[in-house]
Design a protein that fits this description.
The chain is mainly alpha-helical. It has a single domain (2-129), classed as 434 Repressor (Amino-terminal Domain). The chain is built from 9 helices and no strands. It has helices spanning 2-11, 19-33, 35-43, 48-67, 72-79, 83-91, 99-108, 112-121, 123-129. Helix 1 packs across helix 2, helix 2 (19-33) crosses helix 4 (48-67) and helix 5 (72-79) crosses helix 6 (83-91). It starts with a helix and ends in a 6-residue tail after the last helix. 20% of the residues are buried.
Length: 135
């Protein structure tokens, strides 16, 4: 069951995952990487769960930008946001994400409805990033 979930997830990065899917993927990741690596991740306050949860946002934004035929540089210029902020979002660098830049980027890409679903499904992480849903 867990391997099936991991295989399914590998083909659709932008899917909003359920809590069960997140738990299964985190379990398999930690099992694959081993205890030493998993323990080091904890030491550096790295969360596999948050990484997998935010991966959907990263993939959805990157794919939408590419569909629009825009580079990161062009997008940053249009949004008046530094390129490294766009890269942080697309790379899933959660600690480097600025809420205003993320919201601006999501709106620019026309992903507001999808992002609302994501924030609803991932309230704790959205709050940690500084996103509060105002609907």
């Amino acid at each position: 069951m867990k391997k099936k979930l991991l295989k399914k997830y590998q083909f659709d990065e932008s899917k909003i995952l359920t809590d069960e899917e997140i738990k299964a993927i985190v379990f398999l990741t930690k099992k694959t990487l081993g205890r030493t690596f998993s323990d080091k991740a904890v030491e550096f306050d790295f969360s596999f769960e948050n990484m997998f949860r935010f991966r959907a946002v990263s993939a959805r934004c990157r794919d939408a930008r590419i569909r629009l035929g825009l580079s990161i540089k062009e997008t940053a210029l249009k949004l008046k946001v530094p390129q490294y902020r766009i890269k942080a979002i697309e790379n899933g660098s959660i600690r480097e994400i600025v809420p205003d830049a993320l919201l601006k980027y999501v709106a620019f890409l026309g992903l507001e409805k999808w992002f609302h679903r994501w924030t609803t499904a991932n309230q704790a992480l959205a709050s940690k990033i500084g996103i509060t849903d105002k609907r």
